[in-house]
Amino acid sequence: MLFYDSPNPAPNPRRVRIFAAEKGIELPSQEVSIPKREQKAPEYLGKNPRGQTPILELDDGTVIAESVAIMRYLEALHPEPAMFGTTPKEIAAIEMWSRRVEMILMSAVGAVWVNTHPFTAALPGRNAEWGEANRPRVADAFRFFDESLKNFEYLAGPDFSVADILLLTTADFADFVGCGMPDDCENLRGWHERVSARPSSKA
Amino acid sequence: MLFYDSPNPAPNPRRVRIFAAEKGIELPSQEVSIPKREQKAPEYLGKNPRGQTPILELDDGTVIAESVAIMRYLEALHPEPAMFGTTPKEIAAIEMWSRRVEMILMSAVGAVWVNTHPFTAALPGRNAEWGEANRPRVADAFRFFDESLKNFEYLAGPDFSVADILLLTTADFADFVGCGMPDDCENLRGWHERVSARPSSKA
């Protein structure tokens, strides 16, 4: 298999690198440069017509796009340590919190990113007003996670899971975009220190 | 367990109803009226602070929010027929296509819905221009799925899966919002007829 990777600050490839590091999986990889727009080159579009990284290409030619799909594939091959839960309630909680990170936080951070950041705001179809309107939504989303982290050490419960990987990579990308965690989010900041102290966070 | 449900056109509760019908699961349910804004009432917010339906409340008081999390919980309890795949490649393909429905289509339909539809466009923080800019994105997304349905009977391969449930409910909601499938999407229209002919689609 070959992992088509892009370096930080791209948040989605980093999810998979952290996931693989937590499992001790070595992924042969090839870099796709986003500043050089290599993800929009014809050869890459032939593999993923969405023109996004990461993808995982299997030896039989199958291409898996979407970071969470790649992580689920790796989980199926290497079940331990479980990152998507094992009991029905764990599986549900991890999916619920993962989706909340995507739907509440990542969607708002993405709106700020594409509509206001100098790297992308000049592309056609952008709307600066919509981007700015999403800054308070990002802050509200962080406060929602801060509140929920009162009760548990990790986002979906007592154990580190893929939900933490999604929140960590999104929070760090939000910081890069200029809409990072509010100062008053103490539970969230404590959680961020804990997960950033794991060796996998450097992946 | 008790399923807090909202009737059509709400797309997310319908996902779970279709999923349960495919598995032959009877879900005791209670209606939450979105026109009456019952999902924002204090008692409901105590169960799901996001103020969204559906949720599944377990007998021990655990609340599972997010339609896909509820479906994964039900899949863990009732594995047959498998809706999230069983082999690593099936699991990955179903997750990839499910996420593409959410990220490419549902996000654009949602942007049209909240920013342009009379039911929601008058709420604070809306942006009519952004809503209108998402109409062509909805059409592009439908064309992407149309192209992929050239090769397979169902969205993620030869078998019906949760990815089809997400696409069906989103396509029908898009139609309600006024941005339904373009006429030239023949593969998609054939697929829509096939999945709409399943008894579960009436759930």
TrEMBL record, chains A, B:
Coiled coil: none annotated. CDD domains: GST_N_GTT2_like (cd03051). Residues 87-203 form the GST C-terminal domain. Pfam families: GST_C (PF00043), GST_N_2 (PF13409). Residues 1-82 form the GST N-terminal domain. The keyword Transmembrane helix does not apply. GO terms for molecular function: transferase activity. Keywords: Transferase. This is Glutathione S-transferase. The lineage of its organism: Bacteria, Pseudomonadati, Pseudomonadota, Alphaproteobacteria, Sphingomonadales.
